[in-house]
Structures are given as C-alpha cells and as structure tokens.
What we know:
Layout: E1 9-11, E2 21-23, H1 26-32, H2 39-50, H3 55-64, H4 71-99
Antiparallel strand pairs: 1-2
Amino acid sequence: MLLPAIRSRYSSEAVAGTLGPCPSSTKSNLAKRQSPSSKKPTILLVGKYLDHVPLYRQEAFFGRAGLAISRSTLDSWVRQCGVQLQPLVDVDLDLPRFHGRLMA
C-alpha cells in the first residue's frame, strides 16, 4: 500500500518575491513516515532470504546510503510482503495435492 506524500503549503514573501503559496520541504515530511518504494522491499527480501543478511546489517546498509530506516520499519515491510505473498505459497503447497505427486 503506497501512501501519497502530503505537503503543507505556506505563504511567504521570500519565495521568488511572491505572496502566493509555496510547498514545504519534502525532506521533513518523508522523514516522519517511511513508505517503501518498489525497489526497497525487493532489496530487503533478497538480502534477507537469499543473501542471509540480518535486518540490523541491512539497517546499517541503508544508513550508509543516507536512508535512516529503523529495524522495526524493515521488519514491518518484511511482514507486509509475507502477507501479500501468502496466496502464492498456498497455491504452491496445494499443487501436489491436486496432482497426486511432487516432482523434484
């Protein structure tokens, strides 16, 4: 679920000499709530399950890249991905029951 970035608008004379509304900075709003882009959960899940990198190390990786993402946020993203991928797992587990055998 992607949430839109909501930015407040303020009036100021300092912006290009006009009195009209100007958008607030995006950095302060994005720091308050983190929502994953399409690449972050992919990188997170590949790192966790294929490369066997724990979340505390991935937190450090994201921190070195300039993204301050807490471990609890990473954990909630992993849980959300697990919930969304559960129907695929259920179908995969039901296939041997329908065909009567499992080919490996």
